[in-house]
Amino acid sequence: MVFLIIFGVGLLLTVVTFVIGELFDLGDWGDSGAEIGDSPSPFSSRVLFVFLTAFGGIGFIGQTADWPVGGSILAALAGGVAVAGGTFFLIVLPMAKQQGSVHLSIDDLLNLEAQVTDEIPGSGVGKISVVPPGTGTRMARAARSRDGNLIRAGTAVRILSVGPNTVTVAPLDAAGAQVPPPPKP
Description:
Blueprint: H1 2-20, H2 45-64, H3 69-98, E1 113-118, E2 126-130, E3 139-145, E4 156-162, E5 166-171
Parallel strand pairs: 3-5
Antiparallel strand pairs: 1-2, 1-4, 2-3, 4-5
């Protein structure tokens, strides 16, 4: 009966965690050494709850098959570790690796080619889109013209300076040559 209760609690917590997300996540265990770099912990709530479910289920099977109590416990431990380990290495880690973030400094945009998506008026702000190398993600930024001239949508430009809210751009010439950066004060 104890194994069945453990199975039920583990299954309930697994389902609740799945439905409402990371509310019950036990964190990265601080400095205990349980963390693996930026990867999720093998002691995360979802892995522990899967262990409880497998432990209880396999223990209950052993108990109903009239195994000795020690045999049921050992089988339950081995099965719980195997299922939780499989969950961690075959599901949790691969999913975490797919969610890797791209760390992009705003200065990484400097000297990149971009395209004007919203016309940049001579004395105003328009919008450009740029794909920083290695990200595969298109991002939009507010942009100003370096020389105060109108830059039409669709024009290829080079990012010459980067500020907190806007970038300064200049159109590429017809041959696509680089526009020299502005002189430094």
